[in-house]
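One example copied in:
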Amino acid sequence: MRTLYNIYSRYFRAVIAVLFRRMRRRGNWRRGFRERFARYDPNLKQALTNRQVLWLHAVSVGEVNLCTQLIRALELRLPNIKFVVSTTNEHRHGRIAPPAADAYQQNLTTD
């Protein structure tokens, strides 16, 4: 059992090292890093507490563009709702141009 533990331990250390190396090579890895572990900005938490929130999740660039159009259309019909848009990629995260101050962006990067 101890041998199995040692093998897994070494394997996971190697995987983590590869992932951190990849993040550093991509650059700007610190932006949104805490969000990967559900550590969000206190201002965001306060802004969304005790409010009606609509969460939209976009994976592809087309979905991000659609979310922007959807938010613009829904803002007129639902003025009291806050919008949160989450993406799975830093590049897509930067493409979202919040149509109003009530739209928040969150990055749920998994790579």
Remarks:
- DSSP finds four helices and three strands in the chain.
